[in-house]
Amino acid sequence: MKAGGIDSSTIESMLAQMRAAAQRPQAESIANLASPIGANKSTGKVDFADALKASLDQVNQVQKSAETLGKNFALGDDSVSLSDVMIAGQKANISFQATIQVRNKLVSAYQDIMSMQI
């Protein structure tokens, strides 16, 4: 059955790819929990500045790769599918929104500490 120029097998294929992509980040995040970013191997401590910088660099990299995929798709590159572009864009959006939430929590904690009486 055709639905707007896309047959149902193509839609099912896209859904399968999206489900597979949704499962991958969970496995990666579990692996990342085992080895913290910026962890000092001898003391087991995590340097906050290094962890924050690494996280921001990772978000930046995800956004750059999503932008590159979008540009390649717009230029007509046959190796880039629309589903890849949409998934990369959603990953970039989610990582950016998570970064904003962390920033908001840090600002809130800072304001709470600054309003404490000594």
UniProtKB/TrEMBL annotation:
Domain of life (superkingdom): Bacteria
Question: Transmembrane helix as a keyword?
Answer: no
Example GO molecular function: structural molecule activity
Instruction: Tell me which InterPro entries the record gives.
Output: FliE
Localization (cell): Bacterial flagellum basal body
Principal localization reads: other
Q: Is Isomerase a UniProt keyword of this protein? A: no
A single Gene Ontology CC annotation of this entry is: bacterial-type flagellum basal body
UniProt keyword terms in alphabetical order: Bacterial flagellum, Cell projection, Cilium, Flagellum
Q: Which GO terms describe its biological process?
A: bacterial-type flagellum-dependent cell motility
What family name appears in the similarity comment?
Belongs to the FliE family.
Please state what the protein is called: Flagellar hook-basal body complex protein FliE
The gene coding this protein: fliE
